[in-house]
Design a protein that fits this description.
Elements: H1 3-16, E1 25-27, E2 34-36, H2 37-53, E3 58-61, E4 74-81, H3 83-87, E5 94-101, E6 104-112, E7 117-122, E8 125-128, E9 131-132, E10 145-148, H4 152-159, E11 166-167, H5 172-180, E12 186-189, H6 194-206, E13 210-213, E14 218-221, H7 224-233
Parallel strand pairs: 3-4, 10-11, 10-12
Antiparallel strand pairs: 1-2, 4-5, 5-6, 6-7, 7-8, 8-9, 12-14, 13-14
Helix pairs in contact: 1-2, 5-6
Length: 240
């Protein structure tokens, strides 16, 4: 296990201990999005830990550094992915962090505390609770996939003739983690926020899966066939 990954695991697990019963929920915007006191507390804690060990790295994070852009060496932080689920007592939420060196992701962690599932990856592979994980081999006609964000219902309508088994978790961390561990097959996420997809896509890659990115869609799948099916049916896909 790399030193970067050891650091991320320790930081994320320690950050999760900040959560207690003193939950405060506020509207983040006028579109129904929410933010909690723990989004801020966890992110601030992780940022301070990173600054202490990696002073020369920049940080891209949801609450405090959302305008920052990718640099050669940086971290991405999503303190609570699936905040609306979290705020409503639904266990599908997680903390996800990634380390990027020389413009390439080298370590990532996704922690789903309520499910007791700790996912992590580096050059040695992908793991869940210290056990190696791999994507499954289910075909495009039977596998479960998730779709999140604008255009999801258009994508679903296009996919019906091939596969009706879609889910919406409202949490990209869960989708990516469950692809990597073989529970589901693929996800199509429409987001331009690096903290939403960088940790999870790296996890899926190291578990033997495939990924695709452009400015508006970020896909991960157990196979090229499943990936291409989602890509070509997305309203945001531009033929290359």
């Amino acid at each position: 296990m790399s030193e970067d990954l050891k650091f991320l695991i320790d930081v994320v697990k320690s950050a999760s201990l900040l959560i207690n019963d003193e939950l405060e929920v506020k509207a983040k915007d006028d579109k129904g999005d929410l933010v909690t006191n723990f989004d801020y507390e966890i992110e601030n804690y992780i940022i301070e830990r990173i600054k202490g060990k990696y002073p020369d790295f920049s940080i891209i994070s949801e609450e405090y550094n959302s305008k920052n852009e990718l640099t050669e060496n940086c971290f991405t932080i999503d303190p609570i992915d699936g905040t609306i689920n979290f705020a409503n007592g639904i266990p599908l939420w997680g903390i996800q962090v990634a380390c990027i060196r020389n413009f390439k992701t080298c370590a990532s962690v996704i922690y789903l505390p309520k499910l007791n599932e700790l996912y992590y990856a580096d050059e040695n592979g992908a793991f869940m609770n210290d056990k190696p994980i791999l994507v499954n081999q289910t075909g495009v006609d039977k596998g479960i996939y998730t779709i999140e964000g604008p255009g999801k219902f258009v994508l679903h309508d296009k996919m019906i003739s091939t596969n009706r088994n879609y889910r919406i978790f409202w949490c990209s961390a869960v989708s990516f983690a469950w692809i990597a561990s073989g529970k589901i097959c693929a996800t199509n996420i429409t987001s331009d926020k690096m903290w939403d997809y960088v940790p999870g896509q790296y996890l899926v890659e190291k578990a033997g899966g495939c990924i695709y990115n452009n400015k508006k869609i970020h896909i991960a799948a157990n196979s090229k066939e499943f990936l291409n099916l989602l890509k070509e049916n997305s309203i945001f896909f531009e033929k290359e």
